[in-house]
Amino acid sequence: MRKIKYAKAINEALDKIMAEDENVMVIGEDVGFIGGNFKCTEGLLEKYGDMRVKDSPISEQGFVGMGVGMALTGLRPIVEVMFSDFLLVAADQVINQMAKITYMSGGQAKVPMTIRCPIGAGRSSAAQHSQSMQAMIAHFPGIKVAVPSTAQEAAGLLMTAVYDDNPVVVFEHKMEYNKTFEVDDVIKPIPFGKARIAREGKDITIAATSSMVMKSEAAAERLAKEGIDCEVIDLRTIVPLDKDTIIESVKKTGRLLVVDEAHERCGIGAEVGAAVADDIFYYLDAPVGRIGNPDVPLPFSPALEFPLIPSEDKVYEKVKTYFK
Amino acid sequence: MAKIIEMPKLGFNMSEGKLVQWYKQEGDAVKKGESLFSVETDKTNMDIEATEDAVVRKLLIGEGDSLPVTLPIAIVGTAEEDITSVLKEAEDKLGGRAPASPAAADDASPDESTPAAASVSAEPVPVTNEGRMKISPRARRVAKEHGLSLEGLAIRGTGWEGGICEKDILQYLEANKTRVTPLAKAVAAGKGVDLANVQGTGENGKIKRADVEAAAKAAAATASAEAPAEKSSGEVTPDGKRIAEKVPYEGVRKVIGERMSQSKFTAPHLYFNQKVNMEKLLSMRKEVNAVQDHKTSVTDYIGMAMVKTLQEFPDVNASLIGKDHIERYASVNLGIAVAAKSGLIVPNVKEAQDMSLLEFSKASAVLVKKAREGRLMPDEYAGATCTISNLGMTGLDNFTAIINQPEVAILAISATKDEPVVVVDEQGEKQIAIKPIMNIQLTVDHRVIDGYMAAQFVTAVKEKLENPMVLMV
User: Fold this and answer.
1) What's the whole-model pTM score?
2) B261-472 is a CATH 3.40.630.10 domain
3) From start to end of A42-167, where are the E strands?
4) Which of A37, A193, B222, B281 has the most CB atoms around its CB within 10 Å?
C-alpha cells in the first residue's frame, strides 16, 4: 500500500495505458502544455509527444466530435471535458453520435472512446460548473457510466473504460483530485457492473456513488457508535448497474438509502430504487430513501452552496429517521 | 419523575379489574417490556408490561384486590425521588378504597412530580388514519413465514413512522416462544417442570403458575400411573371415596363457574324446542361454498338467522340492568360459544345487524380461530347482546344452555340427522320422507321474556333456516 493523490492515481493510470497501447490518445482543453486543469495529464505530453497528447481549442462540440471520429478509425481516444457541465455543449456528439453509431451501423462500427470529466459542487464554481451529469448521461442507451469513489477506484475504472469497445463516460469528482488516498502498489482494472461493499452492516443499505461513498462511510462510523450498523455500497458504475449486490444487501438489512450528488428529481436515487423494487418489496422494512442535490441550480456563494450539497451530516440525519 | 400506575381498562365494558399478581415488589426495578402485574378481567388474565424503565416505589393494592378501572394501583419513579405529593394524589383518588400507608417519605418539600396517565397499557397496534395496519412488507412476510396471524395482533411498532417492522415481529415471536410469567418460571424451577412441555393458557399462550402446576400434576399422575401400587395408597375422603387427584378451582374455570351459577340462580330459565328441516339450507350452503373462496359453516347460517330474528324481536336483544331497567340494543353483537383449550369462551361478532352472510361468516371465522388459539382480546369477548352455542359436531340430539348474563336468551344448536318426517306432497297427500333434521332450543330469562314471545322467536328462527334465501338478502 502507498498513499497518493486522486489526480496522481488517474495520471498514473493514463501513463500506464498509453505505454501499453499506442492507439490510446489524450485530447482536451489544456491537457498538454498545462498538464490538465486538475493536473491529471501532467508529464504525458513530454513522454508521448504531441501526436498522442493534443491540446484542443475551446470547442467541446469540435474536439468531442474529433474523438468520435478517431474511435471510428480504431484509435482509443480519451477525451477530457473540463467540467461535466460542458457535456451539454457537446451534447449532439455525445448523445446523438457517440452513443448511437454502433446501433445505427448494425454493429459494424465501434466507438471505443472514453470521456473523462469532473462533477460536483464545493468550489464556488457556480451553477454552470458545479453540476453532476451522471444521471442525465445514464438516461441515454449506448453509453456506459462510471462514477468512481476513491483514487484506486478512479484509476481502476478508467483502465477498464479505455479498453471497453463501447463509449464510456467516467465522472471524476473535482473535490477529490487533491485529496490523498491509500492505494495498492499496483492498481488493477476494475470490472464494470460489479459494485463494491465499502462497509458491511446489517441495519440499512446505503448505495452511493463517487464522493458520496466516502461521506456515507464517515456517517456510518458515527452511526455505528449509536448502534446503527450501516452497509455502504459503492455502486462504481450506473450503467451497467449491479442490481444483485443491492438486492442481496437489502434482503439482509430491509432498508435502502441511495446517495448521489446529482439533482434528486429523475436522479440516481429514483432509478436505483425503482430498478430493484420488484426484488426487494417484501424485504423492505421502510420506504426507499434518497439523498441528492435539491432541485435548484447551485449558487456561487459558499454560504448558500454548502447547505445544498449532500453531506456526511445529511446522510447521518436521514439514516436516523429510519431508527426513531 | 414519579408516575401513578392505574388499573388498566382492557375492554370497552371493563369497569373493574382484579389484581391477580404483582411481579415486582416495592423497591424492585422494572425494565421496559417486563411484566409488572397481572389483571383478571371478566374472562381472562392479562399480564401488563411496563412501558419504560422505572423503580416500583409503592404498591397501593394487594394481590386479590379488585378496583374500578383508572384508579391508582402503584407508583413508579426513580429509586431516590420523593413521592410524597404523588402518593397523596393517589390516595385522594382511591378515597380509602385500599390500604395506603404513608410511605417512608422524608420531610423535604414536595417535588415537581406530576401524575401521568396510565403509563402501562395493552400494546396498541399502529394504524394509518384510514385504519390500515402500519406494517412493513418485510414484517408482513416474516410474520407469514412464522405462521403468525396479524389479525388483532397486539404489538407495538418501532419502525418507519411507528409502524411494525421485522424486528418487532421477531421480538414478539421470541417473547411468545416460551412466554412465561416470572412466578410460573420460579414455580417451574422449584417443581422441576420443563417449560417447553407446558401449554400456556394466558394471553397469547403465556404460561402461568396454574399451567405449571397442572403440568406438574399431570406428570405426577403419569408417574403414579406407571407405578399403580402407589396410587391405591392415595388420600381418602371422610366418606370413603379414594381421591385420584385434586385440581385447583381457579382462573378461567372459576370464572366460568361463577358466571354460570350466577346466571342460573338469578335468572329463571325457560326452554323452547323446535325441529328444523335443514334440506334447503344445506344445499344452499353447498352452492355458496362452490362459487367463492370463503367456506361458510352451518353455524354461520344459524347465526345469521339469529341476527335477523333479533332485529324483529328487540325484546330479546336486550339486558336487564340492575333491578330497575331493561336496555334494548341497536347493536346486534352475536356471541358464539367456543370450546377453547382453557374452557368455554364466547367471542362475539359486533354490529352484525349490518352484515351480509359472508361478512358475518368471515368475522366469525377470525374470532373462532383466535378463541381456539387463546388469542382473543378482551373487547372481542365482551359486549355480546345474545349468544348461540352449537354442539352439533358432537352428534347429540338436544341440549339445554345456560344464558350468558346479562343477556336474556341463548340458542342451543344440536346435530343435524336424517329422520323420518311427515311431508305433504303436491297432491296434498301425507307422506313419510327422510329429511335432515336439526333440533334447536332457545333458553330465555323469564324475568324479561314471556313464553309466548320465546315460542314465536324460536319459530321465526326455524322459518328462516327452512327458507334460507331470506338470510342472503
Assistant:
1) 0.54
2) no
3) 53-55, 76-80, 114-119, 144-146
4) B281
